[in-house]
Specification:
Low-confidence stretches: 141-158, 160-180
Number of helices: 7
Largest sheet: none
Radius of gyration: 19 Å
Helix content: over 70%
Number of strands: 0
Strand content: under 5%
Mean pLDDT: 76
Amino acid sequence: GAKNYERVQQSIKECIFLSTILTVCSIAFIWLIAPWMVSRFNQDPGVIMHGTTMIRYAVFAMFFLNLSHIYNAACRGAGNVKYPMIIAIIAQVFGKYLFVRIGLSLFFDVRVLYLGTAFGFTMAGILAFLYFHTSKWTKENNNSILKDANIDVIMIVKNINSRICFTTKFYCRIINILPQ
C-alpha cells in the first residue's frame, strides 16, 4: 500500500480476478481427483465414498474462502489485525458450530457436517467482504485505508466487542433451547 490507496484497491481487484480463475481450475481438478485423494489415506470403499462427498461439498465454498483471505489480508496489511481474527473465529467456530448443531438436530445426516465446512467458508467470505466494504475505516481516504486508524479502530473495537458479547449470549441461549 505505502499509503497509495488506489493501488491497494487495484491490487484487491486483481487478486479477486486471479483467485477466481485459479479457483475454477482448482474446483474442476479437485472434483475429478477427489476419490484418488481420499484413497491415498484409506482403501475402505465407505471411507472413500464419504471423503469424496465431503470434498465435493466443501470445494464450492472456495470462492468465498478466497474473498475471506483477500479482504482479511488487506485489513491486516493496513494494520487492522484484530477484526480479521474476530471474523475468522465467528465464521469458522461459532457459525460452523451452530450450523452443524442446528442442522443435526433437524436432519440427522452426515451431509450436515459436510455442509458445515462449506457454510463456515461462505460465512467467512461474506463477513470479510461486508466488513471491508461497510466499515468506517475503509470508507475514509478514497474508500480505502484509514490515515489515523487509532481513534476509529478503538471505537470499532468497543462497538464490536459489545455486539460479540450479545451475539454469544444469544447463541448460547439458542443452543440450550435445542434438543440434545
